[in-house]
Prior knowledge:
Layout lengths: L2 H27 L15 H15 L4 E5 L11 H5 L5 E6 L2 E7 L7 E5 L2 E2 L29 E7 L13 E7 L9 E11 L4 E14 L4 E20 L3 E3 L17 H4 L9 E3 L3 E23 L2 E23 L13 E7 L5 E7 L1 E26 L4 E29 L2 E4 L6 E3 L19 E3 L2 E17 L4 E18 L1 E2 L10 H6 L1 E4 L16 E4 L1 H8 L10 E2 L4 H4 L3 E20 L2 E24 L2 E23 L4 E12 L10 E6 L2 E6 L7 E12 L6 E23 L20 E10 L1 E14 L10 E17 L8 E4 L7 E10 L3 E10 L2 E4 L9 E3 L2 E11 L4 E8 L6 E5 L4 E7 L3 E9 L1
Parallel strand pairs: 4-7, 33-36
Antiparallel strand pairs: 1-6, 2-3, 4-5, 6-7, 8-9, 8-48, 9-10, 10-13, 10-47, 11-12, 13-14, 14-17, 15-16, 16-19, 17-18, 18-21, 18-22, 19-20, 22-23, 23-28, 24-27, 25-26, 28-29, 29-30, 30-31, 31-34, 32-33, 34-35, 35-36, 35-37, 37-38, 38-39, 38-40, 40-41, 41-44, 42-43, 43-46, 44-45, 45-48, 46-47
Amino acid sequence: MHTSMRLMTCASISAIAWSLAAGMASAQESTSPADTAVEEVVVTGYRASLANAISAKRLAKGVTDSIKAEDIADFPDLNLAESLQRIPGVAITRANGEGRQISVRGLGSEYTRVRINGMEAMATTGGTNNSGGTNRSRGFDFNVFASELFNSLTVRKSASADVEEGSLGATVDLDTARPFDYRKPTLVISAQGSYNDLARDVKPRFTALASRTWADGKIGALVSVAYEKRHLFEEGANTTRWAFGGASGGFNAASTINGLTLAQINETDTSKAIFHPRTPGYIRYDFNTERLGITGSLQFRPTVDTLLTLDVLASTSDGVRDEFNLGNLSFTRTGAGKPATIIRSGTVDANRNLIKGVFDNVDIRTQAAHDELSTKFRQISLTGEHHFSDKLKGGFSVGHASSKFNNPVSTIITFDRIDSKNYSWDFTSRLPTLNQGFDTTNPANWSMTNGTSEVRLRPNSVDNTFTSGKVFGVYELNEALSLKAGVDYREFEYESQGRRRRSETQINTLSAADLADVSTVFSGFGRNLNLPAGNATGWVVPDLNKFISKYNIYCNCGIYELTGVENSSARGEFRTITEKNTGFYAQLDYNKEMFGLPMRGDVGLRYVKTDQASTGYTAVGSSIELVTAERKYNTLLPSANLAIDVTDQFVIRAAAAKTIARPSIQALSPGGDISIQGGNRSFSRGNPDIKPTESKNLDLSFEWYPDNGSVVAVGLFYKNISTFVQSLRQDIPFNQLGLPSALLDGTGVQGSELFLVSQPVNTAGGELKGFEVNLQKNFDFLPGFLKNFGVQTNYTYVDSDMEYLTSTTPGAPTVNQTLVGLSKHAANATLYYETERFSIRGSVAYRQGYLTQVPGSEGNDVQGTNSTTNFDMSASYNVTDKLKLTFEGINLSDEINDQYVDSSNRMSVYSHTGRQFFVGLRYQF
């Protein structure tokens, strides 16, 4: 679907609603006061959720948007990120079939802070290469939690001094339920069954919440639980980028392409060279996930002036991921790889892409992988507030949070077929035809050979902890002015570890009979994928259970011994970061009439001091040593927010602030990490002296609230980013990196081979600007059943012009592009119908394509992700006042994850995860 068509899907709903809203406004103007004296209507469900969120936005001083629970332990979406995407300016990225991270106004998860019950937190999960891998950044993974554990989300788009620094995009507040939220004893339970149409499996989902108060409402306790299992597949094709013809030593001298000379085939000048996929293949990921979340809250109000709250949140997400991949090695390896590969015939398109080809001497690989992943999140916080007098109020909060990601089993075993004949590909369609040229299901056609095939054992872990404390006071100077002041302290600790074998290609060469004993045939690939004819739908893969049992590869002995810092390939996994932030702020809040108009807002100043210490392994002379880096910096951050009530229905807001976002955690390490996987070679190194991203921000919004539950708003925003952190990637021979050659021992890699080198650097920054349009309207002014309809829709436009480095060499050319992760166009629309018993709604979310890397690598100018359009729906029926039937459908269009390299749109990843359906019951006692 083209961009214009996708936008029209959302815009058509908006246009209808705008017309209806205008008609409603005209009708209201002609209504007499007597006609307005109607009885109050109490709304519930999704309509109530929207009305409560609009009310919170209307009363705020700054630029905020909220989402409220529809009912007790009943959030509008099952996933927090998918709920957040309904907010103007918010877009999401998905992993394993559900929302994982968010971007706000074009700024990715690195630029967004998340607080849970007012305390900063970080949640980390693992992911496939298609979805960003293991999260080692500051970005928050929202798929750790079930949405039922929370009763409100608030996105703060403008800054204020009393909110801790650290975000350029927004601060997102997640609030769990508390006992004083409910006036009477409450018990709610729900049960659902989920079904994925690709995995074709049914899994359970349960939630419950219980709350009660005692002693005339002075003491309260609440506990909520959410448990679910999920099973899904991700299937598709990938290429691991595209490379130019002369890379990796070029093709064999016997290669021929009609119309091209051998020199043209193996051209190394990327402005003239042909390009080909590096490792074209098909893959299935099989995910089984089990998630348990528990919240607890105790509240104590000994007097009307004092409130103490203890909140506890625990979440455990355990998963098993199996992988079945059919690809090749030839087009990325030097020596016996690409230089031995012969192009028999080929077709090159207008963008110099080798889109069709027949090849001999191709090294084909099949592999099976097994990962066991666990994320354990724990948070405890204590908050208190006391009114010392009618004018003076004080409070405190202390807390500790930890997110521990563990991948104790990470195993890959490969079989190979060396110098295979008559291999071909056809990339004339987005999903390629990969004809292997032999029977892939016959074990006799495969081998496992010492020095070529691999057994990878790579357990790893990432631990994040937050400790924070805050003391504040508020003094009411008069009815119009109050002064806030406070001190806050946050200490963040990060530790990453990993272990590897000394040589992953040191294995036992298997006989044909041995290989047949430890192999199996994977089948059933390509369901609902519209796979072109000629592709294999099944192939031999290692049977991991049999292989592990027969060769005892988990013994941690002999050739399968796992090593840590003493192993060059594992040493880069060992990193620690400690960051301490001490903040002081003062803020003047006002709420008074000026120039004949009611105005409210704040003016404040925050001072923050940051101390960072990091460790990592790096080259010191001819050896690798553990290095410690330390740095300190401080900054002043002024901010101001203003809301003008022009009328009872019309609000104008303005905000200005200076904000900072600190670099990614792994970017601060002084160490480096070498990775060699098949034909892929990379080296990533940190930069402990990297500066925070700084921005000066302006916001202006116009908001019309024609009635309860409705809003029409237009918001303008501008950010002048003085510097931001770029991940600079360059292709550099290993022997030019200044690293000891001993790091390549046992890998079979030569020092002259190119490594993809990445390093964080500061760039000159640039400008970011855009606008948001938000419309929410109940159609209760229409006659008959039409009054039960309503619409919620928004559109966001963002643009930026950032300067990217192409090299760290002084005077090297730069590239101007939009900010990575920024979608110029994003739109959401929800059309709903709701009565006292029945509710149904359908939603569409569009996100235009965005860049993920500038500049790209191997001669590709950029890397990115193409646009997506996701359709979801939800329905419920109240059988009684206590019992409700529910049905939900997610990703109804089975949207494709379509990633590319180069502005010519060379396919890098093309995969899907299927549709997800939930059917359930909910009972409130």
